[in-house]
Amino acid sequence: MTTISPVEVEEVRGVLRMYSDGSIVRSTKPSFDVPIDDDGSVVWKDVVFDSSNNLSLRLYKPVSASTSAKKLPIFYYIHGGGFYIGSRSWPNCQNYCFRLASQLQAIIISPDYRLAPENRLPAALEDGYSAIKWLQEQAASENPDTWLTDVANFEQVFISGDSAGGNIAHNLAVRFGAEAAQLKPVHVRGYILLAPFFGGTVRSKSEAEGPVEAFLNLELIDRFWRLSIPEEATTDHPLVNPFGPESKDLEPVSLAPILVVVGGSDLLKDRAKYYAEKLREFGKRVEYVEFEGMQHGFFTINPNSEDSDKLMQVIKHFMLVQWSG
Predict the structure, then answer these.
(1) If DSSP codes are grouped into helix, strand and coil, which group holds residue 200?
(2) Exposed, middle or buried: residue 34 (CB in 10 Å: 0-12, 13-18, 19+)?
(3) Residues designated catalytic
(4) Tell me: domain 42-324, CATH 3.40.50.1820, correct?
(5) Between β-strands 24-26 and 258-263, what pairing exists: parallel, antiparallel or unpaired?
(6) 3-class SS of residue 65
(7) How open is the CA angle 66-54-112, to the nearest 5 degrees?
(8) Do residues 113 and 124 touch, judged by C-beta distance below 8 A?
(9) What is the pTM of this model?
């Protein structure tokens, strides 16, 4: 009897490979070699937040937090990767969280979530919700993790996401609403969507005309959606397209303030801009910032660049306005 070996049918950046027999092989390392830039000014540790799905989050805080009389704001950073690659432990993610903790003087929480195609949407969104509920449990617990609770201000929480993480942040904003009463004593002040990953069956201009050599090109965008959305669904699915034909009407939904950031050369630019403009039409508090000439993920690819520095200032200003308002 002849045995036919499975053949590779999908491959993404050398990180994920799918075979004709349905098997999947994942690398624990990203496709790019980035050294960890740890100068000792930030400490971190991992915590399991969902044992049933073996999911952890990584906590970061400035070393100076232990001697400060002022408790620090909490900033969630939900990583990107098209919903089926990426991890809190990847060096690019860790380096950006170091920088966020240091520059924002904040507690950074970076959760993992289940990845497609083994776990298609809405799995990642449910995991994002669980990661926020974990914080509520800590805030209300009689025996919390004091590494966190001794220095954290649960009244000043911001939820941020990068690319696919930005999509998760949007869906959390809709789910929790402006007041997020179900999260007390945690108070979410605002959401920061960094190059949010939205889709739709009708191509945007920036998608259709974007260069094939872009860091996130149209072929990758289509592949990410094909393997992450529910089977038989299209990219007009409500979790993918906030304004699709079957999506929830967001006009009557009460939303916390939202900051939307995108690179001017990112193929996702037009969708992010439309998202911000549409919410503004509905009377929502939305700020839109575009970085001319920047590609998708510029702030994690080169976190020490001039534009990344400017973005950090934009985020700091947004946070200051929300917690002083």
Answers:
(1) coil
(2) middle
(3) 163
(4) yes
(5) unpaired
(6) helix
(7) 60
(8) yes
(9) 0.96
